[in-house]
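Quick review question:
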């Protein structure tokens, strides 16, 4: 998906809590997700949200496209995972996933 001729970030997220023991992790994940969206909106960077809890295709695509060296030792990568089109940019803890797009939007004057 392109927006104003620019690539659009895909943000994979989930608001589903699979187990009560994961409640603290859940709130951290939600906080990270909202931080990412807030940054993208504030910088007028186009994005598309992909819910991995409600859509099995989104979950499968995200898991298959996170590079091996960015996956946890056990389990699956947790959201939010950030892609620019199909290019992996990292997770919440791995900036500068946003710098290239932010700088490009500033130069070109493109807004979301």
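Suggested answer, residue by residue:
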């Amino acid at each position: 998906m392109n927006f104003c001729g620019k690539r659009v970030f895909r943000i994979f997220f989930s608001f589903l809590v699979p187990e009560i023991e994961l409640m603290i992790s859940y709130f951290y994940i939600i906080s990270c997700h909202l931080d990412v969206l807030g940054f993208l909106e504030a910088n007028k960077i186009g994005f598309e949200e992909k819910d991995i809890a409600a859509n099995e295709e989104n979950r499968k695509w995200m898991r298959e496209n996170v590079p091996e060296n960015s996956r946890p030792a056990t389990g699956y990568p947790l959201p939010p995972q950030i892609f620019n089109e199909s290019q992996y940019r990292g997770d919440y803890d791995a900036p500068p996933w946003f710098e290239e797009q932010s700088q490009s939007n500033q130069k070109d004057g493109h807004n979301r």
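Why it works: Confidence is low (pLDDT under 50) at residues 1-5. Helices lie at 23-42, 56-65, 99-108.
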